[in-house]
Amino acid sequence: MSVFSRRIDRQIGEYQRELIETHYAEVENMYRKMRGWRHDYRNHIQTMKAYAASGDMEAIKAYLDELDTDLSTVDTVIKTGNPMADAILNSKISLARSRQIAVRADAHIPVKLKISELDLCVIIGNLFDNAIEASMELPEGERLIRVYMDMKNTQLYISFTNFTAKKKQKKIGGLFKTTKGSGHGFGLVRIDHIIERMNGYISRDSEDGAFTTEILLPQVCSLSPDSDNSSPK
Predict the structure, then answer these.
(1) pLDDT in tens, 173-222
(2) Which ranges of 73-172 would DSSP assign to H, the alpha helix?
(3) How would you list the strands of the sheet with 155-163, edge to edge?
(4) CATH code at position 125
(5) Domain membership of residue 178 as a residue range
(6) Sequence-ordered list of residues with C-beta below 8 angstroms from that of 8, at least 6 positions apart, any chain
(7) Rounded distance, CA 63 to CA 85, Å?
């Protein structure tokens, strides 16, 4: 292996560690908020009981509205059947919404996956980060990310679509050109290496102001413990 190849491998390894640390911090922050809200649950109940005892219905309504707003920031909106996918998707959805980016997600993983949690985190985290950054170039009302995950026969299908300020992006050497830093390029390399190692398939397409990435990964189709007894779609 050449000196150049070793340097690239080292840089990719460093990028991967930074990526995992970032995703872990985001997930931990989300669950810290959830634990804090649950810890305060009894206090919330006591406060509303006090308002009810005094017959102050307006105060109860206002307090419930405040709680509803607070809870929406920590709500677990996605339950795929896979704990790692749930953690990273929900943390990224929370991050996107904090930046006024609408997210439409439909994700189901009813089987035990062949892909490791580390690789799954790298793929989903990179795809979501790229979509969030591209969405920030648009006005708030036009920001939208669509996520779809499900089984197609014995393969895990992953699709990310986000709208962009550019109508159509150009490819250079078979890849879409990026204006972002070197870390972004390593993220794409990591995704491509994982898919190649698993004998999977990836497609990137830029059309009509939307950028879509589609991935197919061969999987072991045994039902996960948390899934029902229905067959994979």
Answers:
(1) 445 444 444 445 567 888 998 999 999 999 999 887 899 999 999 975 44
(2) 83-98, 117-135
(3) 102-107, 144-152, 155-163, 210-218, 201-207
(4) 3.30.565.10
(5) 79-218
(6) none
(7) 33
